[in-house]
Write a structure and sequence with these properties.
Number of domains: 1
Strand order of the largest sheet: 1-2
Distance between the termini: 13 Å
Number of helices: 5
Oligomer: single chain
Helix content: over 70%
Length: 138
């Protein structure tokens, strides 16, 4: 479908969707939200681009395939479980490290964030796989 109105609106809405997806992803490991909802929002921006332009054009512009997104996501999920096993804790126990920041602060990074990023990529991959399978059926 080549809708000029949808293409014009997509320039602004897509940026907002991706920005809110990243905010939801980063906020989610301490509050509701996270990788799943952020991945749905990022996937929605890709779905909108596919509807506004063309599914084949979207597929050609993608740097990774849907299987690449799913594989990366599952790999990050698996990677997030390894530190707890190495520390002798139960499987998938959350572990954090603190990195000092220059202006008298610290940044806390943990395995739940890595897990959420993995879910984020996996959800995007599943949405893309579903979207491209709809194109085959049409």
């Amino acid at each position: 479908m080549n809708s000029v109105i949808l293409q014009l609106a997509l320039r602004y809405v897509r940026f907002l969707l991706l920005a809110f997806a990243i905010i939801t992803l980063l906020r989610g490991h301490n509050h509701p939200g996270g990788g799943f909802i952020g991945g749905l929002m990022a996937g929605l921006s890709l779905v909108m681009k596919g509807f506004a332009y063309n599914m084949d054009q979207l597929k050609d512009q993608m740097k990774f395939s849907s299987q690449g997104f799913i594989g990366t996501g599952l790999g990050l999920i698996l990677l997030s479980s390894i530190p707890s096993l190495l520390a002798g804790k139960e499987f998938m126990t959350g572990l954090w490290i603190s990195l000092p920041l220059p202006l008298n602060g610290e940044l806390k990074l943990g395995t739940p964030l890595l897990f959420d990023i993995g879910v984020f990529f996996a959800v995007i991959g599943v949405i893309l796989m579903f979207l491209f399978s709809l194109k085959k059926g049409a």
